[in-house]
Amino acid sequence: MIVRIMGEGQLELADSHLSGLNRLDDELLTEMEGGDEEGFRRTLAALLDAVRSLGTPLPDDSLEPSELILPAPDATLDDVRRMLTDDGLIPGTV
Amino acid sequence: MSGVMKRMGMIFRAKANKALDRAEDPRETLDYSYQKQLELLQKVRRGVADVATSRKRLELQLNQLQNQSAKLEEQGRKALALGREDLAREALSRRAALQQQAADLEVQHQTLQGEEEKLTLAAQRLQAKVDAFRTRKETIKATYTAAQAQTRIGEAFSGISEEMGDVGMAIQRAEDKTAQMQARAGAIDELLASGALDDPTGMAKDDITAELERISGGADVEIELQRMKAELAGGSGGQQAIEGGRPNPAEQPRTETTKFDKR
């Protein structure tokens, strides 16, 4: 499966890694919803590191749709929250 | 439970699809995307230029500090030569302060240099990505244009075949109509002949009328025959001269004719 880290590019990940990543991802969501900025930053960094170490980067010239998308490493809790609201990633396209 | 990355993925896809659906021509979307990437690249380059400018400014300041420091050292040396140790001490202490500033600036300079290198690398990588996207974009555009042309050709062909189909249908309809009219005409003739259908033109007759006419027609013939015989009886020699030489044997039993011939 193809995962995009915003601002970094895309990586290909074996499906077998998904359950481990899902745990971190769910933790990230809980921290985001709970407003735990510190936990959010820590989990995001761990999740990104896991994806980077387990995945294979796709070449720059490939245009593959991403099945999963992760916020940029420097994204704040508010940034991500904004991206997940109704206005979404591309404002004004709803 | 849906985590952050799944939700972001879903939202992104939904948005991207909507954005693409709204665009009339996907080639325009690609061009727009490329334009945005170029703008981003431009921003990064501007960032690199800003950092480089700051680094150069720091280098100038460092040079000035070093010049001042050298000048103060020289002044201290001269003061000592003139036996003014107090002045020499003052010059050296000022020089020490300048050197501390220079050391601070040096640290800043190194940090900026590191940033600049990182940004330059990022700009180069972004440039590579944008170039790759441009190539890919042109390929997609060409493919799309070709597909569009193919579709147009296909549509033209199907249009032609549809028209041909219409012509065929028209001929078929005309044939059907002709056959139907012929069948109807035949049926009407039969119906008229049998008298089951009245002829609105008054030309057709029922069987009784036909028989009456046939009988009265026969009577007319008889009347006409009598009239002609009467004419001949009161008649002219011309008629005799013509027929005299060539008596008709078939008329021999007719007594009246025989009487004419003997006279």
Descriptive notes:
The complex is a heterodimer of chains A (94) and B (263). Chain A has a 4-stranded mixed beta sheet with strand order 3-2-1-4, covered by helices on one side. In chain A, a hairpin with a 3-residue loop joins β1 and β2. Chain A contains 3 helices and 4 strands, in the order ββααββα. Chain A is 45% helix and 14% strand. Chain A is an alpha+beta fold and 94 residues long. Chain B is mainly α. Chain B has a domain at 2-160. Chain B contains 6 helices and no strands. The chains are: A alpha+beta (94), B mainly alpha (263).
Helix content of chain B: over 70%
Are there runs of chain B of 5+ residues with pLDDT below 50, and where? 237-263
Shape summary of chain A: globular
Pairing-aware structural class of the strands and helices of chain B?
A: mainly alpha
User: Helix count of chain A?
Assistant: 3
Biggest sheet statistics of chain B: none
Most strands sheet of chain A: 4 strands, mixed
Cα Rg of chain A: 13 Å
H/E series of chain A: EEHHEEH
Strand percentage of chain B, roughly? under 5%
Distance between the termini of chain A: 27 Å
> Which residues of chain A sit in consecutive blocks of at least 5 with pLDDT less than 50?
88-94
Number of helices of chain B: 6
What is the string of SSEs of chain B from the N terminus onward? Answer: HHHHHH
The helicity of chain A comes to: 40-55%
